[in-house]
């Protein structure tokens, strides 16, 4: 186990490990978005159906996701993942810390706008993850930035 933990971020606190974890998860999200539209359509599930009864088939039909959109999302997510992984190891470097912070604010802004302004997603399981991760990490970073940046 020590051989594995030696490669994890060595800074104090859990925030660097969280950045590492979300970076790895983001890489996985990128791979799936390049591979299939299924999971991306769960996030961008379109407007509620007229009858109010959503089925997987209706959600898939209502989703605005195209292969190009999924690939752009995958590239954006992979870029954010790299920033977060670098920040996990260099969290005491102010520009890197704040650049990671910005990735979460961009994610929150994007998902919030797609939900509240553009209607390309609705509140549910697919949107909950990105919203919870982005808002909790934004708050965490704002509450602890002085611990890492002095």
Automatic annotation (TrEMBL):
Compartment(s) where it occurs, according to its Swiss-Prot or TrEMBL record: Endoplasmic reticulum membrane
Transmembrane segments: 96-117, 123-143
GO cellular component terms attached to this protein's record: endoplasmic reticulum membrane
Topological category with respect to the lipid bilayer: Multi-pass membrane protein
Keywords: Endoplasmic reticulum, Lipid biosynthesis, Lipid metabolism, Membrane, Steroid biosynthesis, Steroid metabolism, Sterol biosynthesis, Sterol metabolism, Transmembrane, Transmembrane helix
Alphabetical list of InterPro entries matching this protein: Erg28
Location, primary (coarse class): endoplasmic reticulum
GO biological process: sterol biosynthetic process
Coiled-coil positions: none
Claim: Cytoplasm is one of the keywords in the record: no
Superkingdom assignment: Eukaryota
Endoplasmic reticulum keyword on record: yes
GO molecular function: protein-macromolecule adaptor activity
PANTHER family according to UniProt: ERGOSTEROL BIOSYNTHETIC PROTEIN 28 HOMOLOG (PTHR15451:SF19), ERGOSTEROL BIOSYNTHETIC PROTEIN 28-RELATED (PTHR15451)
Family per record: Belongs to the ERG28 family.
Protein name as annotated: Erg28-like protein
